Amino acid sequence: MHVVTFLRNRFGLTKQQLAQKTHLTSNNIIRMERGKDSYISKAIRVAAFFQVPVDAVVCNDTQAVYAALKTPITPQHRFSLQMEEREKIRRTVGRQGEDWVYQREREKLAGTVYENAVNPNFADDLQVGFDILSFRPDGTEIYIEVKSTKHGCGEPFSLSAGELKMAKKCLAAGWIYEVHRVYREHGITRCLIIPAAVLLKDYQIQVESYMVRRKSA
Asked: In Å, what is the CA distance from 104 to each residue of 4, 47, 99, 115?
């Protein structure tokens, strides 16, 4: 790791922010961190800002930088906080979508014996693979997984291993499994219903989670 990268992250700065504070360009900082920019005038500006020896920046001398540090690093947690905020927003949007679908299903079944049997509380059970149990007017059960996003219908959504397993299980058994894709369009809440067969045939599902476990001896 280049000393400039180390120092920049130590103070929680982006490349653009460091460039602004040293009156350089983002490209200058990028090239410096890659060891491709050895202009002494630029190194002087960066060294002065971080209060480390110029030679340490020019020669990428990490030990000299470490020795120049007089105070401990203060944890920033900026990225973690950003992720927490995004997750908070995602959960709120998800709950709103589930409530919206629940009310719509009850309205669909108004006047039938199934109106008050619609159950939205499966969302709290991570093992079942769906959010809402609903019905057709003839009493046929419908397993509904709600996927809500703030933007258009084309925005990608996540699917857990349990949800994918349930979709395949329902398709094989002849049960009804639907993804209710809730989204906003021109300020209006809309819903695209994706049956299990369509989900598995017409949608690309990428597995991007890598679990790490110790190998057996």
From this structure: 55, 62, 9, 10
pTM, whole model, 2 decimals? 0.63
Other beta carbons within 10 angstroms of residue 132's beta carbon come to 21
From the list 47, 9, 37, the residue with the least C-alpha distance to 28 is 37
Is residue 41 a contact partner of residue 23, using CB atoms and an 8 Å limit?
no
Domains, the chain = 3-68 (1.10.260.40), 78-202 (3.40.1350)
How far is C-alpha 62 from the geometric centre of its chain's CA atoms? 34
Give 87-142 pLDDT, tens digit per residue: 777 787 878 999 999 999 999 999 999 999 999 998 877 788 999 999 999 999 99
The pLDDT of residue 160 is 87
